[in-house]
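Shapes recur. One chain:

:::
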Amino acid sequence: MATLGIKRSNNLFEVLISKKAFWLVFVLYFFSVPVIKSVTRELPQELPVLKKLPDYSLVNSFGKTFGSKELAGRVYIANFIFTTCPSSCLRLTAEMQKIQKRVRGLGQKVALVSFTVDPDTDKPKTLFKYARKHQANPYVWTFLTGETKDLQATIIDGFGVAMGEMEEVKGNVNGETVTMFDIAHSEKLVLVDGTGNVRGYYDSTKKDINKLMIDVGLLVNRKEYSKN
């Protein structure tokens, strides 16, 4: 084909894209930026460490030794109940049932632990029946009893919550005044990380339990993130 004999000079961009080195740099940049962003992305703020739990060893509903050693490496939610409780325990146990359903997708990363405050009544067999009644998955939800002094050391000194003595109280049942027995104890849910640090105390309100679920996710995800 005839031309006018004029050769068009290439501009800078055309010169660059004709070089193999340009495409090498482009490809490296294109694929490295997402990786850099992923690595440098910050996790949400760390939950505060409120206190360190002492080591403890109690007895589960199967009559086996169970305590901080068996829970090492797992995030867990603790609460405090007794099986003959005439007041708040049924509500607290119902909330733990709901939590059990919400954490089931996390497998063995999260555990639930219910400590009795009435070890004289709540022997392993009693706790076993109570756990069955409330559909506790034994791989997730553990019920603990033991010697009174050991439970007091764990609950009062360790978790820093109340565990009172058995008291006679008057109650109203179907319009009649009856005598019942109650034990003053904490109604808090306590979040513990995999190294035995208390990371939060929560009420059994919907708002607080939703916050608890978020915080459980933060601890589990931070642990998984730190592995990579």
